[in-house]
Amino acid sequence: MGSSAADKALNLLRYLPRVCLANIRDNPGAVKKSRRGRGQHGGDYHGDGNKGSGQRQNFMRLGYETGNNPFYLRFPWEPYYKGHHLRRQYPPLSLEQLQLFVETNRVDASKPIDLVSIMNTGLYQIFPDKHQFGVHLTDEGADLFKCKVNIEVQWASELVIASVEKAGGTITTAYYDQHSLQAMINTKKFFERGIPIPRRMMPPPDAIEYYSDPCKRGYLADPEEISKERLVLSQKYGYVLPNIEKDKDYTLLTERKDPRQIFHGLHPGWVVNLKDKTILKPQNEDLKEYYAS
Amino acid sequence: MSISPIFSSKMFHRFICHFRQALPTRTLSSTAPETSPVEPNKNVIIEPRQLKFLPKYKEPCQVWVENLDTIDENKLGIIELHPDIFAVNPRIDIIQQNAKWQKLYRYVSYAHTKSRFEVRGGGKKPWPQKGLGRARHGSIRSPLFKGGGVIHGPKSPNPHFYMLPYYVRVNGLTSMLSIKLAQDDLHVVNDIEIPSDEPQYIKELIKSRNWGPSVLIIDEVDMMPRNITAATDEIQHVNLMPVYGLNVYSMLKHDTLVLTRAAVDLIEDKLLTALHRNSTFSYTKKFVLNQV
Amino acid sequence: MSTMSLLAKTSKVLLETCYKNISTKYTPLRFHGFFNSPFLEDVQIKARYEVTKSPEDWKYVERILPPLTVPELPQREVFISDFKPQGENHKHKPYYIARTRNHMIPVYLKIKQRGVKKLSYIRKIQGDIWLLQKELEKFLQPMSKAPLRMQVNEFAGTIIMNGDYVNAIKHWLKENDY
User: Could you say which of A181, B287, C51, C63 is the most buried, measured as most Cβ atoms within 10 Å of its Cβ?
Assistant: First the structure.
């Protein structure tokens, strides 16, 4: 390999005068100054007309049909998107991406994977203030998915559940309220605030059904029912269900959070002191009762 | 780097400095043996550095560690510098953008002019609309009049604050450090303890080592030893700065950059962390004032 | 004379008291401001807390703290995703394309003019960039009817070409162990 452009440039600089405030400049043409036009038509609009899309855009507005009654106005109004701005959103993460995260060491598959570990990759973002409530694991790359993981997401389709279970892993869908999500999106920032870990709230009425459904592997569903549904799903998709009871990673695959818990191993009400590396646990009975209920 | 890094062209360059016009194409071998080799100080042990995130197929740069406790230069050993920090593409345009930003972000323009309504007087119509054969006017403070208001003139205060993108700032620092090293303006010292607090000591030291004339000395901490603080206090072109103050403008302004060994470690650590951040979302997003 | 001396004396006393008050009350603090001013001291924390230092619990804290820098690639034989780590032995090849900090191939698609113009970018090229351009052209030209338009920036180490050839270039680079 020959010397790179950087080496050539640095070698050149050895023989050039010292770089100082007097001899630096930006690339030619990097900054374009807006100039005032002169002459007869200097002050007008360059043929673009006055205001609006004619002046500011080079394209027609969405749905505009050059004078026809547009398609989107031709029919009576129907409330397809009523209340869409209030609905819960789940930004997607595909199985292919998850596979890549595991293979490039961004996610540790030897520990349970949850929203915190997906956020810690630095490659996935959610905004709780924009009604985003967590990960939607999508089925892209489902055929190739081969990671044995214990994953907890907020939304998953049947195919995704099947492909995770086929690979020998387990999947749970769990709900987190906005305060819990704020603590989870950047744990370091949250602990530095010095406030107790909040307790996780129960899902709202319209989400209770989803999160207590064993078919959806909801975190509030009966574990007996879930193991039954695992078998049903394997028969539906036609694969042999790996026996996790005899797996050497049985404890990993069956590690679950309490419905009130946000972080594995840390209980609500605890305060984590990152500076002294200590954990403050509440002693008052009323506090204990509050965080346990 | 293509030249032998051990010499790092220091002596050669110093020689060339005097004869830059006369001898622009001298080779390294013809000048290096002229000077007698300096015996390294046996008392000081310079430990080799561990470089993190070392890129493939790039050689680390090598630099002498000098001392400050004698006026004449005493080479103590050689350390290696990270090529991603000290031998990157010298982007003059990025350096210029940094220098411009540093000048502008704290600049507030107080230039102020008055509009026709702010200039005192001018409420009365100066003469009747018709009948005088004169041009029609409504106010003697109209911009057409002498002593009238100014159209679209500067208004004060006008802050010129803006934020440069994070990686332009990071690359500005790496480019500038690379240029300083390439032009033989970067020196590493083991520490900044000097035996005397006289300004004359520093002046002689700079003269004997062919530094400067202006020198920027960077240390890891901001509470620096008493002697060097007192000695450089009165010399206006020799300045001390902690690592957290290191910036492109000051490096451009000073001819020679002197880093302590500890400062080199800290600068490299900070910049490598910046270049290999796990999550860049919070750094590359749009800048907002008063962000939490 | 006496009034003058009295005046001087009182002003001196006044100056001293002022100085004393100022120096005790307003000691200059580095990085001091509203956002890092001390908390109110008379706040009573009534809740009793047990301060624990168990390494068992701390393991769980460390597990969820985000890493500061990108983790290193693990040694792995099989990759099921389309990721392939960079091969060794590029030292004597005429050019080299470094991986990004996320261990990915630095080839990108840039869409301009509202989806009309598509540009493929290759970054981080070291060595003989012109040879790489020729080899790429040989590989990519059969995919296009029109002659490929390539822009080589030797100083920046980038090649920009007209058209979406990102997957093709990535495939070619992976084949060549970059």
Answer: A181
Q: Chain B contacts of A13, Cβ < 8 Å?
A: 90, 179, 182-183
Tell me, what CATH number does C112's domain have?
3.30.780.10
CA distances from C147 to C129, C150, C162, C163 (A): 19, 10, 10, 11
B282 interface with C at CB cutoff 8 Å: no
**According to the model, what pLDDT value does residue B34 have?**
42
List the structure tokens of B33: 């043996």
- Domain-wise residue ranges, chain A: 86-264
- Total of domains in chain B: 2
Question: Are B43 and B179 in a shared domain?
Answer: yes
Interchain proximity B95–A20, CB inside 8 Å: no
CB contact B274 to C (< 8 Å): no
Residue with the two structure tokens 């700079």: B206
The H-or-E segment that residue B102 falls in is helix B92-104
Average confidence (pLDDT) over B231-237 = 95
* Domain CATH number, residue B189: 3.40.1370.10
Residues B144 and B241 grouped into a single domain: no
Q: Is the pLDDT of residue C122 over 80?
A: yes
Does residue C43 surpass a pLDDT of 90?
no
- Sign of the four-CA dihedral B250, B255, B260, B265: positive
Give the residue from B138, B159, B180 where a domain finishes. Answer: B159
Is C165 a member of any domain? yes
Considering CB atoms only, which of B56, B275, B279 is closest to C98? B56
Closest approach of chain B CAs to the CA of C174, in angstroms? 17
What ipTM, to 2 d.p.?
A: 0.86
Percent of chain A with pLDDT over 90: 77
Q: Residue B40 has what pLDDT?
A: 52
- Cβ burial, residue A207 (10 Å; 0-12/13-18/19+): middle
Chains linked to C by 3 or more Cβ pairs within 8 Å: A, B
Domain containing B120: what range?
109-159
Inside any domain, residue B104 = no
Q: Is the pLDDT of residue B22 over 70?
A: no
CA distance between the termini of chain C: 93
Same domain membership, residue B186 and residue B66: yes
Residues in chain C: 178
Q: Does the pLDDT of residue C5 top 80, yes or no? A: no
**Residues of chain C contacting residue A188, judged by C-beta atoms under 8 Å apart:** 65-66
Of the candidates C70, C90, C156, the beta carbon closest to that of B278 is on C70
Q: Which residues of B touch A1 (CB under 8 A)?
A: 57
Cβ–Cβ below 8 Å for B277 and C70: yes
Confidence of residue A62 (pLDDT cuts 50, 70, 90): confident
> Cα–Cα distances in Å, from C52 out to A89, A196, A269, A272, C56?
38, 14, 14, 10, 11
| pLDDT 10s digits, B28-78 | 333 334 444 455 555 677 788 999 999 988 999 999 999 999 999 999 999
The range of the structural domain enclosing residue C118 comes to 95-175
| Least CB–CB distance from B57: residue in C69, C96, C155 | C96
- Residue B128 inside a domain? The answer is yes
B175, B178, B182, B185 alpha-carbon torsion, rounded to 10°: 100
Shortest distance, CA A112 to any CA of chain C (angstroms): 10
Q: Report pTM.
A: 0.84
Tens digits of residue pLDDT in A146-192:
999 999 999 999 999 999 999 999 999 999 999 999 999 999 999 99
Residue B182 sits at the chain A interface (C-beta within 8 Å):
yes
In terms of CA atoms, which chain C residue is nearest residue B58?
C91
Look at residue A239 and give its three-state secondary structure.
coil
C160 part of a folded domain: yes
From the candidate CATH numbers 3.100.10.10, 3.40.1130.10, 1.10.357.10, 3.30.930.10, the one assigned to the domain spanning A86-264: 3.100.10.10
- Overall domain count for chain C: 1
